[in-house]
What we know:
There is one protein chain. The chain is an all-beta fold. Helix content is 0%, strand content 39%. The strands form three sheets. Strands 1-2-5-8 form a four-stranded antiparallel beta sheet, with no helix packed on it. β3 (21-22) and β4 form a beta hairpin.
Amino acid sequence: MSAVGGGYGVETCAWRHGRGKEGAYGRCHVCMGKGSLPVSRPAQKCPDCLCTGRREEAPGEPCARCGGTGWEGAYRPAANTSGTAPR
């Protein structure tokens, strides 16, 4: 994990294993194509999906608790239209 500031560090997005792509052309809807995202420190794996980002009963759908990030307290860029990280 690298530091971002404001109590956040950077962790790999679980949905596409840090690749940032959906299929051949699209970007990951969880990390917006970045491959990683800010996660509140200390980083804690999501207890519902065990850091896979996927629902056990429906692997093609994102985990309801972490939204597909695989982390507790992850900051999802899609939720912020300003593009700035939380402070």
